Amino acid sequence: MAEHDFDLFVVGAGSAGVRAARMAGGFGARVAIAEDRYLGGTCVNVGCIPKKLLVYASHFSEDFEDAGGFGWTVGKSTFAWKSLIQRKDVEIERLHRVYAELLAAAGVRTVKGRAGLADPHTVVVNDKPYQAERIVVATGSWPVVPEFPGSEHVITSNDAFFLDELPQRVLIVGGGYIAVEFAGIFAALGSATTLIYRGPLFLRGLDHDIREFLAAEMTKKNVELLFNTTIEAVEKVRGQLKAHLSDGSQREAERIFYATGRTPNVKGLRLEALGVKLDARGAVIVDEDFRSSVPSIYAIGDVINRVKLTPVALAEGMVLAETLYGGSRDPLNYADIPTCIFSQPNVGTVGLTEEQAREQCGACKVYKSTFTPLKHTLSDRNEKTLMKLIVEQDSDRVVGAHMVGPDAGEIIQGIAIALKAGATKATFDATMGIHPTMAEEFVIMREFQLEWH
Ligand code: NDP
Predict the structure, then answer these.
(1) What ligand 1 atom has the least distance to the C-alpha of 308?
(2) What lines the ligand 1 site, CB under 6 Å?
(3) Could you read off the pLDDT of 115-125 as tens digits, one per residue?
(4) Ligand 1 atom closest to Cα of 48?
(5) Residue 1's pLDDT is what?
(6) What share of the chain is helix, strand, coil (3-state, %, to 5)?
(7) How many H-runs (helices) and E-runs (strands) does the chain carry?
(8) Which amino acid residue places its CA nearest to atom 25 of ligand 1?
(9) Is 96 a known active-site residue?
């Protein structure tokens, strides 16, 4: 009789937890996973997947307009938010079934209910204790809304996917991925949209040119950008919300959407009581093998607050399972993680920003190109694309690639492989373009705009 019920007990069936559980099961470990909300976590239910579906939906308004430039006459179009949300919900339910099947196929036992830890080897779900040699905390993160008068009236991304109606007017607060993506979605679907950000320019941490360029493009697409502004209070007036802004003005809207960051989900787990060390932001502190300060307890995904991206969570789950049950494996390399912000137009980015390169590299060259995508020569849409490469002079290595434009995520994914392989500018130059594409611009940039030593 084994000492424990399970080799591994995973708490939280999001991207990180499901991947770790499935892989550990595949290696022959006896695995259970507990989830009290929905299989697939944030990404599948209130994040990446439904967000991308909403982005697709919202782009049709421009596509219908652009079609005219190509000889099409498109009849009067109408949009039904309820229908989109219903169809999205059906797809998410399908994904729940897929996740359940994948877990079952890997021999993982799914336990429905909220889990808490009773001791370093015991997880309790619905008052029932489960003994495990190792426990993995993969509970993700949760949107945070700052406290202010009337903060109870605002919504977060958790609510935005289930609204009964598309708001006619919406205020979005924050300058991160979620705020920028939802501003694009609401504006393109027809909501009068204002994005309110406390700093001078949104998307802090990204390349400065990219941030400025995106701000200009979003303004063209009817997103009102209010920088250096905060909301001081919100009140409900005749069914509307009235926001009192820091500049003394007021704005009315049907919805006020806060996208002001996410906090690690550790409430009720009793981690600190067991000696698991958390950092100042409540994230579980782990070593490079994802082991916490209690040797039998591990943590992966948003709850460790390293890089809050689904592919990173998946990679952490895989590395953990391989390290514990698949033989040894190198620690996860967090360098050059590509990302895409599904703003309109998209932002794709990998490697160092110009500002980071100035600090971390010696002499560098910056190649920049701004152009009108071919499609918009006939659509007459006033949308521009920006591409930027940062090259370290001594090594000739491309250390950063950034883009604002359609399908930037699709394009930067390929460029990220080149960066990971250590590609030089000479390799980019020796690569044939695919004509006519936007992506070919990355291999035909010859004149640098800026150089520093
Ligand atoms: P972020 O942490 O990216 O951004 C939070 C934003 O809110 C920042 O602009 C921040 O300002 C601002 N903010 C924070 N606190 C306050 C406050 N008290 N008052 C006013 N503004 C405030 O969070 P998000 O919620 O946008 O996204 C969470 C994570 O999810 C991201 O880290 C991202 O990794 C991930 N994500 C990834 C996506 C993708 O890959 N496409 C899509 C969506 C999310 P400041 O900059 O001044 O600190």
Answers:
(1) 34
(2) 146, 173-179, 181, 197-199, 204, 230, 259-262, 308-309, 339-342
(3) 999 999 999 99
(4) 42
(5) 43
(6) 35, 25, 40
(7) 13, 22
(8) 261
(9) no
